[in-house]
Amino acid sequence: MIGGFVFLIILGITTYIFCLPFILRNASRRKAMERQIASLPAFQPAIRFDQPDEKRVLLLDPASSQLAVTTANGQPRLYGFDQLVAVDVERDGMSLQKTNRGSQMLGAAVGGALLGPVGLLLGGLTGSKRQEERVKRLSLKLFTSDLHTPVTEVIFFDSVSGDRPDSEAVKQAAAQLDEWHGRFRTILQGNERATPAVSPTPEQANTFGRRRDLLAQ
User: Among residues 48, 56, 53, 98, which one has the least CA distance to residue 77?
Assistant: First the structure.
């Protein structure tokens, strides 16, 4: 009895000593990311999402109309809302719903796009088949006009073995993904409304007038 208790203590200490370098490395990485966020000029994030693996952080500052993406191994990328071109909801690397600037942003929210088809699928499956349906990855891809980093993927759920679509982990990740996709839809709609209508120059107006006269003749 005592020998087994001592063995557990030794095992716990050994495990802690083995994991200590990884713990310290992750803590150092987190501190570096927080310093990077604090150093961004004229950026005060009000909304934040940390990836489950803590290797990427997504931040929004509605007051300055900017968003930022930070990574553990690189400098944070800062974008104006007007640089956002499209967002894409993906499951296991396959697009579920993509919203582009200028596209018709109507229809079901991403919650319906993500969980609706899955619910229909599960409704037609038996219990054994339902267990086979697995979700391994849920992510949101951001497309911007930045030529250096035009595409950024933010992961909301990641599992090597996968999990059932009706599991709490998947549903929670889907709800977070739904919220963020809704925010970016709003940004894209704002970008579309902010795009001014281009009026013809006097030279173009004269040309249009001459063409109209010719067509009338």
Answer: 56
Instruction: Check if the beta carbon of residue 33 is closer than 8 Å to that of residue 70.
Output: yes
Structure tokens at 94: 């396959």
How many Å apart are CA 108 and CA 188, to the nearest integer? Answer: 16
| Contact (Cβ atoms closer than 8 angstroms) between residue 185 and residue 87 | yes
- pLDDT per residue as tens digits for the range 30-67: 677 778 788 888 899 999 999 998 889 999 999 999 99
Tokens of 95: 């697009």
Q: How many Å apart are CA 208 and CA 200, to the nearest integer?
A: 9
For residue 148, give Cα distances in angstroms to 42, 52, 70, 79, 164: 22, 26, 15, 12, 37
Q: From the centroid of its chain, how far is CA 144?
A: 13
Residue 174, burial from CB neighbour count under 10 angstroms (0-12, 13-18, 19+) = buried
pLDDT in tens, 177-210: 989 999 999 999 887 766 554 445 555 545 445 5
User: How far is it, in rounded angstroms, from Cα 80 to Cα 146?
Assistant: 10
| Angstrom distance (rounded) from CA 81 to CA 79 | 6
**Rounded CA gap, 118 and 103, in Å?**
25
- In single-letter form, the type of residue at position 4 comes to G
> Would you state the pLDDT for residue 97?
82
**Cβ–Cβ < 8 Å for 52, 158:** yes
Let me know: does 85 contact 143? Beta carbons within 8 Å: yes
